Amino acid sequence: MASTHVVAQLTTAPDAQQWWFRITGGALLYVLSTVLLAIAWYALLRALGANGVPASHTLTIYSVSQFGKYLPGSVLQYLGRHAMLRAHALSHRLLVLCALLEAALLVSAALIWAAPLAVNYVPVNAPMIWIVVVAGLTFAGWLLHRYAPTLGGGIEVSPRWFALAFALHLAFFGMMGITFRVVAGAEIFATTGWLTMFAGVAASWIAGFVVVGAPAGVGVREAVFLALFGAALGEQATLTCVSAFRLATFGGDLIVFLVALPFAAAARNVRGAT
Questions:
Q1: What average pLDDT score do residues 142-169 get?
Q2: Helix axes 92-118 and 126-147, enclosed angle (nearest 10)
Q3: What pTM value is reported for the model?
Q4: Predicted pLDDT of residue 78
Q5: Of 70, 78, 83, 129, which is least packed with CB atoms within 10 Å of its CB?
């Protein structure tokens, strides 16, 4: 019944057109979110000493490979990115470490955004979580600065670039929250409040990320969001919002992929000619 309601709400309901206007606006905003992730990936490469890959190539590779998260297994984006950057003579060790660091920074940034919801489920408050996350990142940064260069593979650690990457990941989740606000509408946010809703978006992302095998967290994020807000917003309204949000994020990823694809092909042809 709930899924039937969602389909009807987005197709035959009197306000269906308004939903699609908001979905389109959300997709365009989510393009900016994906661009933030691509820039953060470039910052991580620079943080590990990968200075030989032009920023334009890095952003193109990330934008094209990122769409692989929608395929079964949800790992093809990492494999594609790794393979394409290996063509630029980056070592396996550097690229694997970069992928692991990206995952750690993304989860850390999401935890900072999701922290206001923690008090409802565990005996800690948001400031405690923020302190733990920042302390953990600081310690991890010290370990990297001291030991990562010993791994070889051309790894040289730059804390300044790491800080920039983390700031961009924080901005990514902020942009995700804004995208959800545009798609869901003002009434939904008025019910829960901005901070709580942004926290819910980040918490649902964490769930979709850690559940291995779910393409782009499909189904997992929606289930978590329903568990968090279904009682307050109503099951049907919540499902409609998260379904529309999923369409917007998929649309944003698709736009980035299609725009970047010709640039990736041109770069491949240049490398082939040389």
A1: 87
A2: 170
A3: 0.90
A4: 85
A5: 83
